[in-house]
Amino acid sequence: MSPLPASIPGIVRTRVRAAVRRPARLTPEETAGRALVLRLVSLLLQYPDAELTAARTELTTVVRALPDTPAARRLSGFTGWFAGQDPEALERHYVEMFDLRRRSGLYLTYYLHGDTRRRGMALLALNQRYRAAGWNTDSGELPDHLPVVLEFAALAGPGAGEAPLRQHRRGLELIHRALTDAGSPYRHVLAALLTLLPPATEADRAAVDRLVTEGPPSEEVGLDPYGAYGDGEFAPPGAFVPPVPAPPTRVPAAPTPRTEGPR
Fold it and tell me: Among residues 11, 22, 124, 158, which is most buried (max CB within 10 A)?
């Protein structure tokens, strides 16, 4: 028997990678359950305003009714904390975790492209993806805001709908790691989401380690190194400080002393 053509292993590897990236074929019931989990994660990652905090009991009931899965157990761990907090404390915690910490911000393209021109192109591509699926966002948020991406995934389904989540998996890993390091219960929400995605590879983990130490790409010149702004936080936008001007090369002659006459 002649040996297999040299191209066969490559084809196998390609098809295996493709199978790992996409979810297994789901029944309609499984697809609906997955969409519900994505929508719950989207809701729980939104700012805890009066409307959301008023719905905490209902959200807790829905999470308890989910089938027993790793995602459901993670969400249950979060809603138990969420339901028992003072609304003002929830607001403060949310702002601290997601608005004041660059490592756990919810804008996904930042982790992949940083503050570069490529990020603008990525945002445009996301908007085009939404429109091609017949979905126009009117939330006022950028298209890469994680709750927006999750809502699209819930509406469009496991294939194309979840593609942006798979593309930004490393950013999601970084957010989860930052929330875990901070001891935030929101880590359970990110963990629930990650259970729906393909497992992280060694390359993914190495890339997240680089993000932690180096930060995302940047086109700014003169920024202090990443990590110089507090406890390992990325340098914030607009942090560039112009250098102090060099002293003049020619020192002017001292003025002639003025003498006073007798009084």
Answer: 158
Q: Has residue 219 got a pLDDT over 80?
A: no
Q: Any idea what the Cα angle at residue 43 is, between residues 40 and 45, rounded to 5°?
A: 110
Nearest to 135 by CA among 119, 150, 115, 120: 150
pLDDT digits (tens, 9 = 90+) for 129-157: 999 998 877 768 899 999 999 999 999 99
- Let me know the angle formed at the C-alpha of 96 by 93 and 99, rounded to the nearest 5 degrees: 125
DSSP states of 221-255 as a string? Answer: SSPPPTTTTTTSPPPPTT---PPPPPPPSSPPPPP
In sequence order, the 6+-apart residues with CB closer than 8 A to the CB of 254 are none
Residue type, 263: R
Q: Are 152 and 164 in contact (CB under 8 A)?
A: yes
Structure-token pair, residue 257: 């002393």
